[in-house]
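Journal club prep — side note

Before the paper discussion, L.F. wants everyone to see what a predicted structure for a comparable chain looks like in token form. Sequence:
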Amino acid sequence: MHQHIFTQPIVSEIKQPTLLTLRLSESVSDLLVLSAMTNPIAEFVVSQVNGTNATLIVRHQPFVELIYHHTQQVVSQYDQIRTLGQGARLYSKMGTAPRVCIEQLRAGVVVDIQADDNVYFSLAPLARFELISLEQDLRILSEPQALVMAKAILGRKFDHSEPSSVLAVHISELEQVRRDLREYLKGESGKIHPGVSTELLKLDHLLQNKHQWLLRTYHQSLERPNFGRSSNEQLCNIEQLQRKLDCFELLAPKDVSDMVKKLSDDEN
């Protein structure tokens, strides 16, 4: 579950009280985060615990950065107490405006982690997020796969300097996602919630714009092999061409030279 929205698992060792700060990457736009706020931001699973030492398997959404800091502070109240094999997920609080959660996530959400035969997780009192144990997590992802894939490809960054063969693969993948969106809308006509249908149409429009940009970049890569040059730039030195022409004129027979001059005069 949630494999398509999380990064690969990260093994983190906790040997003393630790403050884990989850913060948005600077290059991530609020619009991308907005579409992902209904999903868990991070997941923590206890794989080992021995006294004050613990090992966690951490997965998180790719737009979030994890920063660990050691602390001497001891928290008296905890949001979650987990033992071996158990875990928790970090969600935004129900009923809280997504904009407020995004602002706090951009500033940094701190999770206090401590171990003492069990692993204790706690959030700051004013946090707009909450920790939910895995066995009580009822916020099952209900978005259709076509919608998830469309959001994923919109959130991906493309580099215009990539080879034309790689750009062609990106274009094909984007066309496949758009085709899946249209087929889903056609197959589920009248069954989809109006809000989901509107979001699918908006995503299809954004995908179309990205498709046009990729096509334009692809054609430019074919017509202009070096983006450091303009498309009509002379690739050869004119003086060098003139020297070659003079050499050919000296070496060619006189009748051939006269014929070339006559042909060039006729063209002019």
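L.F.'s comment for the group: The two ends are 74 Å apart (CA to CA). Keep this in mind when we get to the figures.
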